[in-house]
Amino acid sequence: MKLFLIRLALIACAFYFVFPMIPGVQFHGNFLHAIGVGLLFGFLGWVVESIAIALSALLTIGTLGMALLVLIPAWIVGFFLLPALVLRCVADVMPDSMSFSGWEPAIWGGLLMLVIGVVTGGGAQKRTRRQE
Fold it and tell me: Which of 5, 16, 102, 115 could bridge 34 with an S-S bond, Cβ 3.0-4.6 Å?
């Protein structure tokens, strides 16, 4: 829970302080709006990631593994595009709070969100076993 709150605070700070410095990104609102946008970003990130994983699995199963020849390089090259796609979705859902002038500012913002996700562990939980 503490890691989630730290990650949410970092994402809200990025929306409130760093995103307005990126040319082509406009954020309108106070810090509470940034927290709300951060929560929406986390939820939509989970949805987009789940859809991407499901489509990859369907393509892999449907082509008996041959789609992996295309999917693996696409995931390696385009892993930073998913946060940019999520940011554009957030901007579409909340146009009064955030807007992008194109895909390039969204990609820069997505890279920032990717760094925050990597630094905070990306939601990976430590799993420990009890010694019995």
Answer: 16
